[in-house]
């Protein structure tokens, strides 16, 4: 089976600092793949490089078997590679419905039509509302996105990405700042997603990670430390020392065991 | 208030305003009617500026250039080809569109202050061309355009008839811009205004949206210019200078960027102060406009249109 996403020696360097350093990774279709690692491990940079927000300074990104390293972020999104942001990135002065509808109307290829009012594009409006319903925000459709709480913004973010007809979604710390109830709701939502949708999740909440993921990759100082089934990773000594708590303090500064 | 009631109220207000505007020449003298005609033509320009500034978040000082291009085109068509007002307006719109399409590609690559400066440069360049090119009368401008006609009828000499034509055209533009803001395309433009990088992450090409709306705003400005010429039957480099561009942007700020009726009111106010009140207050019109501007920025950050918002959020 061709992996949906394959990284070959992917590198992104900020000057001489290689935040992502020769990462090899492959994600199979339908996989729920979690990416964990201590702060500064390069998770967010890896995400941005895969999504095309940041350019790769080395290596390549393959999506559905095709090299997309040179493509722009928007072209990657059109091919079905979508990401969410660690800090919600919304259209704050637009209505909640507009936020999701922006994603739907691009997929429906009506984003540049002005021959009639948006609410007369029935298919687009219905689908946008259905996505809002699935994250529990339908009651707030007419409010400005700026009026949403932090947790609601995260939910809207999820709805926007799912409305873009993705084949791979990358969630960047989706539950950061969520209450326990909101986190539970998010985990439920992810579990109900169609099986053919591939997910790559950066997450700090290890309960969420071990509940959702079929595979876990541990990143440390820009490199892959371990990759495998959740139990396997949990048992890995290198991971334990680098991340799960038993690291000596000086390891954090000297790079720890490699 | 539910949506149906709100829609009904909006419709009622629109009908009342249009009725008043249509009836105005029956009650007012020719001078007042001429003034209102100019306000309407200027409001069309302001609608284009609002589409860029208020809806898409691109403050511009270059729209006067396309306004001027439309006005010159209309006068040239009137002098040499036909006195048909419809043909003049369409020609002005087309030339405004073409001029914006030819020059906008440079401007839309930039954002914020740089975009503002690039549009200013475009405006000043076209102003220079108009002021020095003998074929368009250089600094004298073009005069002697025959009165407009409609549908092959007789020349429309009374101010009221010209007013009705300009009113009809302005309402058409207003309706078209309203439709644009409510359409999926309008949503795309607001998305570009609010968060361009997020648009890219959703698979949009924001540059395409910016360029297309720049062309559209140029076409609208061209239409405004042609209507301006239909009333004045004269065009000079002063009609596309920095002052016109700045007043158009000022109208949008005073009226409330993003609202459509607010900036139209702003346009009327700005022209009233510049052309009519200025003489009676010893030529201090610009000073008054400056004070109005300062007052609006401090007291009504969302312009005249913001007053309604504030009332609604309080009740």
Report on the architecture of this protein.
The complex is a heterodimer of chains A (258) and B (315). Chain A has 258 residues and is an alpha/beta fold. Chain A contains 10 helices and 10 strands. Chain A has helices at 43-51, 73-78, 96-107, 122-134, 150-162, 180-191, 206-212, 230-235, 237-244, 249-254, and strands spanning 5-14, 17-27, 32-36, 58-63, 66-67, 81-83, 168-172, 198-202, 215-220, 223-228. In chain A, α6 links the parallel β7 and β8. Chain B has 315 residues and is mainly α. Chain B has one domain: Orthogonal Bundle (ABC transporter involved in vitamin B12 uptake, BtuC), CATH 1.10.3470. Helices cover 76% and strands 0% of the residues of chain B. Chain B contains 13 helices and no strands. Chain B has helices at 3-27, 30-55, 63-80, 85-107, 112-132, 159-182, 184-194, 196-201, 206-232, 242-255, 261-280, 285-299, 305-314. In chain B, α4 (85-107) packs across α5.
What are the SSEs and their pairings?
The complex is a heterodimer of chains A (about 260) and B (about 325).
Chain A: E1 5-14, E2 17-27, E3 32-36, H1 43-51, E4 58-63, E5 66-67, H2 73-78, E6 81-83, H3 96-107, H4 122-134, H5 150-162, E7 168-172, H6 180-191, E8 198-202, H7 206-212, E9 215-220, E10 223-228, H8 230-235, H9 237-244, H10 249-254
Parallel strand pairs in A: 3-8, 3-9, 6-7, 7-8
Antiparallel strand pairs in A: 1-2, 1-4, 4-5, 9-10
Helix pairs in contact in A: 3-4, 3-5
Chain B: H1 3-27, H2 30-55, H3 63-80, H4 85-107, H5 112-132, H6 159-182, H7 184-194, H8 196-201, H9 206-232, H10 242-255, H11 261-280, H12 285-299, H13 305-314
């Amino acid at each position: 089976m061709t992996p949906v996403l394959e990284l070959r020696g992917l590198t992104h360097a900020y000057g001489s600092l290689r935040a992502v350093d020769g990462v090899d990774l492959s994600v199979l279709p339908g996989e729920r793949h979690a990416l964990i690692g201590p702060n500064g491990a390069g998770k967010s940079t890896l995400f941005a490089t895969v999504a095309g927000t940041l350019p790769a300074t080395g290596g390549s990104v393959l999506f559905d078997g095709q090299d997309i390293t040179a493509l722009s972020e928007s072209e990657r999104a059109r091919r079905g590679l979508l990401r969410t942001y660690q800090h919600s990135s919304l259209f704050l002065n637009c209505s909640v419905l507009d936020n999701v509808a922006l994603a739907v109307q691009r997929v429906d290829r009506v984003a540049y039509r002005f021959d009639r009012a948006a609410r007369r594009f029935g298919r687009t409006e219905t689908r946008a509302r259905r996505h809002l319903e699935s994250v529990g925000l339908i009651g707030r459709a007419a409010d400005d996105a700026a009026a949403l709480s932090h947790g609601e913004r995260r939910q809207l973010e999820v709805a926007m990405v799912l409305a873009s007809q993705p084949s791979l979604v990358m969630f960047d710390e989706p539950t950061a700042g969520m209450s326990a109830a909101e986190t539970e709701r998010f985990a439920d939502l992810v579990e109900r997603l169609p099986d053919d949708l591939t997910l790559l999740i950066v997450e700090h909440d290890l309960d969420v990670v071990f509940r959702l993921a079929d595979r876990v990759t541990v990143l440390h100082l820009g490199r892959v430390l371990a990759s495998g089934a959740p139990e396997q990773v949990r048992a890995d000594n290198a991971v334990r020392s680098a991340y799960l708590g038993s690291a000596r303090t000086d390891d954090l500064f000297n790079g720890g065991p490699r | 208030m539910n949506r149906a009631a709100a829609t009904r109220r909006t419709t009622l207000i629109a009908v009342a305003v249009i009725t008043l505007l249509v009836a105005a020449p029956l009650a007012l003298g020719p001078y007042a009617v001429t003034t209102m005609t100019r306000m309407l033509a200027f409001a069309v320009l302001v609608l284009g500026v609002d589409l860029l500034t208020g809806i898409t978040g691109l403050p511009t000082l270059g729209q006067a250039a396309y306004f001027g291009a439309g006005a010159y085109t209309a006068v040239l068509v009137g002098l040499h080809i036909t006195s048909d007002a419809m043909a003049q307006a369409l020609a002005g719109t087309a030339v405004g569109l073409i001029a914006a399409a030819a020059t906008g590609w440079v401007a839309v690559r930039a954002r914020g202050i740089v975009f503002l400066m690039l549009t200013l440069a475009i405006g000043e360049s076209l102003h220079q061309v108009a002021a020095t090119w003998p074929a368009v009368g250089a600094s004298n401008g073009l005069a002697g355009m025959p009165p407009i006609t409609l549908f092959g009828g007789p020349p429309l000499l009374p101010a009221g008839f010209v007013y009705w034509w300009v009113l009809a055209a302005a309402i058409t533009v207003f309706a078209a811009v309203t439709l644009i803001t409510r359409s999926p395309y309008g949503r795309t433009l607001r998305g570009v205004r609010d968060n361009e990088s997020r648009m890219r992450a959703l698979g949009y090409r924001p540059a395409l949206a910016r360029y297309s709306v720049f062309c559209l705003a140029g076409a609208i400005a061209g239409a405004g210019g042609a209507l301006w010429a239909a009333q004045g039957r004269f065009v000079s480099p002063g009609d596309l200078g920095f002052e016109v561009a700045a007043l158009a942007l000022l109208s949008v700020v005073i009226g409330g960027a993003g609202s459509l009726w607010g900036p139209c009111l702003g346009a009327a106010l700005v022209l009233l102060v510049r052309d009519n009140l200025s003489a009676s207050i010893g030529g201090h019109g610009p000073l008054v406009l400056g004070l109005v501007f300062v007052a609006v920025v401090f007291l009504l950050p969302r312009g005249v249109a913001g007053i309604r918002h504030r009332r609604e959020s309080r009740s």
